[in-house]
Specification:
By secondary structure, this protein is of the alpha/beta class. The chain has one domain: Rossmann fold. It contains 7 helices and 7 strands. Helix 1 crosses helix 7.
């Protein structure tokens, strides 16, 4: 059994996947857990990084200012914001990622989209993501390129690859719900939810690595 901290998760999807594999798993987020679990800590996960975890899984750190798709806002701020605010938010996001990436924990996995050069330059000991996967590799019918930054963990192996539907079909539109989600107060929250098939693969494969190395 490994002790697992799932940071930046309120849905419980990843935490529960590790629990089902028999690990001592806890989630932490600034928001309360959707499922009301007593294995959820409300607060800043950085306050827990020195508590002796075997595995740190950062499910979805705030990435709005880090991801390549949003780099344009650093030079032309959206309505209601200034460019100074955009750069300040970038610094905050990079500092959070850095704290997780450099945590005193043996095995670390951080999920994040493709970063732009300004974010990479601000992250301490930056290394490129070890792999980029899709939910449909793990039986989840959806499109969402997901990069994993890994430390002392192997790349995830696909478990239940589906056949993507052809472009232009209704099925392809359904699989594209992440990118097609309309603006609204819950958009970021819903887009941050983890996919159960991918979470199960993480818990099975990375949890097993941690368990074997602890027992050795």
């Amino acid at each position: 059994m490994a002790s697992v901290l799932v940071a930046c998760e309120y849905s419980g999807t990843v935490r529960n996947a590790f629990l089902r594999e028999g690990h001592d798993a806890w989630s932490c987020d600034l928001l309360p857990s959707d499922d009301g679990s007593n294995r959820h800590i409300i607060g800043d996960a950085r306050d827990l990084l020195n508590d002796g975890w075997d595995l740190l899984m950062v499910a979805h750190p705030p990435c709005t200012r880090l991801c390549n798709s949003g780099v344009r806002w650093l030079h032309a701020a959206p309505r209601g914001k200034t460019t100074d605010q955009m750069w300040a938010e970038l610094d905050e996001g990079a500092a959070l990622f850095s704290d997780f990436w450099n945590a005193p924990i043996e095995r670390i996995a951080i999920e994040n989209p493709v970063m732009h050069k300004h974010a990479k330059a601000r992250i301490r000991n930056y290394r490129p993501p070890a792999q980029t996967v899709q939910p449909w590799w793990f039986g989840d019918p959806a499109f969402k390129a997901t990069g994993f930054y890994l430390k002392n963990l192997p790349p995830l192996a696909p478990t239940a690859k589906l056949t993507p539907p052809a472009k232009g079909t209704d099925a392809h539109k359904r699989w594209s719900w992440v990118h097609r989600m309309p603006p609204g107060p819950d958009r970021a929250r819903e887009r941050a939810r983890f996919f159960p098939g991918m979470a199960a693969a993480m818990a099975s494969q990375w949890g097993d690595v941690a368990k074997q190395e602890i027992a050795a």
